[in-house]
Structure formats: C-alpha cells, structure tokens
Amino acid sequence: MPRPNSPNGRVTATDIARHLGLSVTAVSFVLNDSPHINKVSQRNRERIRALAREWNYIPNLVAKSLREQRANVIGVSFADLRFGWAHAALLGMLEVLEPAGTVPLIAISMWDVKREQQDLRSMLGRQVDGIILTTPNVENLDTYKAITASGVPLVFMGDALSDHDEFSRVLWDEADAIAAATEHLIASGHDRLVMLSSDYDSLTQEMRHAAFLKKLSEHGLDNSPADILRPPRGQSPADALDHYFKSTKKPATGLVATNDALAFAALGYCDRNAINVPDDLAVISVGDFEYASHRRMSLSTVALDRHQLGRRAAEVLARLIDHRPKEPIHETLERGDVIPRSST
Predict the structure, then answer these.
(1) Residue 332 banded pLDDT, cuts 50, 70, 90
(2) Residue 110 CB: number of other CB atoms within 10 A?
(3) 135: closest CA among 89, 87, 80, 82?
(4) 80 CB contacts (<8 Å, ≥6 apart)?
(5) What is the pLDDT of residue 296?
(6) pLDDT grade, residue 66 (50/70/90)?
(7) pTM of the model as a whole
(8) Angle formed by the axes of helices 174-187 and 203-218, to 10°?
(9) Tens-place pLDDT, residues 5-18
C-alpha cells in the first residue's frame, strides 16, 4: 500500500486509522500497547500492526511524553570510561531501564567540574526524568541542590559527598573492602604498609582512609596519616611513590591502593624502578576491574560488583521517580571476595 504524503514524511496514527477506516483511539490503543487494547478486536489489531510495519510507523515519543508527563529518558554522568567499570555499571542499569522503555542519556565529564556542571544543566534542559551521577564533587554542590529542588530525582552512584545525607546514593561497602585488603597483607607477613589514594574529598575516601588506619591500629602497627599518599592535582601517582621511597628510610613492604587504576600505576612504577613485586613490595587493590587478572601484571584485589552497582542505582532512581519518597534512599552493597594473585 502506498504511504501517505505527510508534510514531514512521518506516518501518524491518524494516517493508519484513516486508511483502515478505524478510529484514531483504537489505533492508538494498539500502537501504544494500552491497557484498553482489549477493546479492539484481534482482527483489527493484526491489521493495525501489519500496516504500521509496512509503512514503517515510528511512535511520536515527544507526544507520548507530553501525555504521560515523562520523557522516559534519564541522565547518567560518568567521570570517565576507563577500565571498563562504567560499561559494566551501565549494563546493570539497562536491565532496569530497557523493560521500562527508558533510555540513558550519557555524559562524560573527564573529572572536569565545569564540564560536569554543563552536562547536568543540559540534562535538565532536556527534561530528563532523573539523573545518576558518579564521583560527585563538592564544588558542584549548589548544582546538585538545584537539581533536587527542581523536582528531578538525583542518585549518587559509587561515591557520595561527606556530610550531605540529603542526597540519595548507592555505594559499595568500601570500608570493609579496604579492611579486607589490609588484613590480607598483614596476614601475609607485612607489618609496614602504605596506602595510595587520591586527592579529592568524598564520603568513600573518608571511609577508605579510616578503615586502613583502623586496621593498622588493631594490629598494633604504625597508623600515621602520613602513611596515606594523596598526590595532589598535577602530580602523578608515580611521582608520589617516587617521593615516598626516596624520603623514607624504611619504606613499606605492602601497598593498599584505593582502586585498581592506582594499583596499576604502582605496578608500573615498580617495574620501571626495579622494585620486585611482591618480594620488595606487595600490592593489593579494591575493584577487580578489567585487566586485574592480566597474566603479566596479575593484581590481587577485593572484588566490587560493578554490574550490581549500576542495577541498584537504576532501581533506586526508578523508586524516586515513581513514588517520590520524602526521605533520600541510602543503600550500601556488600563487597566481594579477596582475590589473591601474583602481586601479593
């Protein structure tokens, strides 16, 4: 059958209804899988669907969102896409989003505060139903407050801001993960430990550092905050390690990295400086991200389920969108197993 000559070239429900001699309401019931679809006979349902396929009918999502007062789009802001963790988290989100007909609008800030702010404002301008944000930065606190004040649900995923429990969040139990990693090194005979971390303030950073120092204290080991290396912006992890080893008379024999990316930086530094891993320095991390089990640089780590993190964040956001609870939702996911590999 010839397609109708619509001004914009799009086939509408009205075109299908006119051609089949049916009401627009009946056609809309079928094309939108309405709960009222049973009001349309099986024969007419088949006729409507057959013609829609033949004419390559595409639903008008803008009109649908206006009717439902929902865009069926959420914003997802990642700091970066390295090491595959974002990919795994996104797959978890899609398990929740796809059955609901929701599409993620993805932005990547590259750890740039201003870029993140622009991305979030762009999402609001596109009328997203809600936003999932990784690695929130306190410098954008006013933006986060403006998002929630506008009625758009916001969920922090994987990290959160200290002293700001007003925001919903889904986190791993990183305190327990760091404690397990530290305990693994101590049980392996190491009594001089150092932590390699990052120079940004967040709730999970506080949890990691406190767990490391607490575990050292439990074993009667030196637990000075100086044992936590936090290279400032502009300084690489390798530079921080270089300064540490050159300025410390009796350096650590075990290193706990707060994530796999930092651990790989440490392994690279050791390789370049003839520091034998694990004989001179045992290295363990938290995450078990992609490449952690690589045969040449096999990294001991504590597993964190990225897929589950993404799924739970999407589920929490869906609850916020659908039910609008008065209080924020806070969820903490259990860590996985300690996975010993050749780096320890």
Answers:
(1) very high
(2) 10
(3) 80
(4) 86, 108, 109, 110, 111
(5) 63
(6) very low
(7) 0.80
(8) 30
(9) 555 557 888 888 88
CA distance 188 to 212: 16
- Predicted confidence at residue 226, as pLDDT, reads 72
Among the ranges 21-25, 62-66, 263-267, which has the highest mean pLDDT value? 263-267
Question: With 0-12 CB in 10 A as exposed, 13-18 as middle and 19+ as buried, what is 106?
Answer: middle
Q: Which of 238, 243, 280 is nearest to 262 (CA)?
A: 238
Token pair of 118 as six digits: 């622009």
Q: Which two tokens stand for residue 173?
A: 């139990």
Please check whether residue 286 is in contact with residue 259, taking contact to mean a CB–CB distance below 8 angstroms: yes
